[in-house]
């Protein structure tokens, strides 16, 4: 494994959470200040991104359910069974993976979008997104519910061709296999 590689933003956020859960060794507390500054900057960026997405005037909260009567461009297209079977058995490689559980929705949304954009730009076709199953009893988990809903939004729609819950050894109900759409002009 290369030691010269820099950590990506999401890896640094994850490492920051791990580092905060430990006590610094005597005389080593200074290294955490750089990490704290980066995490504060990342959290501020996530808050700014969320502020851009929230309307200026508060809207009355009404549950929005997908209507079967109106056609939607964000209809879920499942992976074909042979493709899912090949991925589950390892005959078709997952080219990248991202673990979102433990993140709040605003952080997870921006990190997931960035991850999928980069994977799409690199021409990747199959990736694994780990959302987690939810930890409280009777709860499905916020990200487990939210991520499939995000996929029907315009910023995700052009990136994703299909998705399906992962096989048990890849995370089962707490993870999704994602097939990314082909880049414009790319031939099969």
From TrEMBL:
* Pfam families on file: Smr
What SUPFAM superfamilies does the record tag this protein with? Answer: SMR domain-like
The superkingdom of the source organism is: Bacteria
- Mind telling me what this protein is named? DNA mismatch repair protein MutS
SMART domains listed in its UniProt record:
SMR (SM00463)
Limits of the Smr domain: 98-181
Q: Which InterPro entries match?
A: Smr_dom, Smr_dom_sf
The segments labelled Disordered in the record are 43-77
Taxonomy of origin reads: Bacteria, Pseudomonadati, Pseudomonadota, Alphaproteobacteria, Hyphomicrobiales
């Amino acid at each position: 494994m290369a030691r010269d590689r820099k950590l990506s933003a999401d890896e640094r956020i994850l490492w920051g959470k791990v580092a905060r859960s430990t006590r610094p060794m005597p005389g080593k507390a200074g290294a955490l200040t750089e990490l704290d500054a980066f995490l504060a900057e990342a959290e501020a960026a996530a808050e700014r991104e969320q502020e851009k997405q929230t309307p200026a005037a508060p809207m009355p909260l009404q549950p929005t359910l997908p209507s079967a009567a109106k056609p939607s461009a964000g209809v879920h297209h499942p992976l074909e069974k042979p493709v899912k079977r090949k991925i589950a058995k390892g005959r078709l490689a997952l080219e990248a993976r991202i673990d979102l559980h433990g993140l709040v929705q605003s952080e997870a949304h921006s990190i997931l979008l960035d991850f999928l954009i980069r994977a799409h730009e690199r021409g990747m076709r199959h990736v694994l997104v780990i959302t987690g199953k939810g930890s409280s009893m009777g709860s499905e988990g916020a990200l487990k519910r939210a991520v499939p809903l995000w996929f029907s939004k315009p910023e995700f729609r052009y990136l994703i061709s299909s998705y399906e819950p992962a096989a048990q050894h890849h995370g089962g109900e707490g993870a999704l296999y994602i097939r990314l759409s082909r880049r414009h002009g790319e031939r099969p």
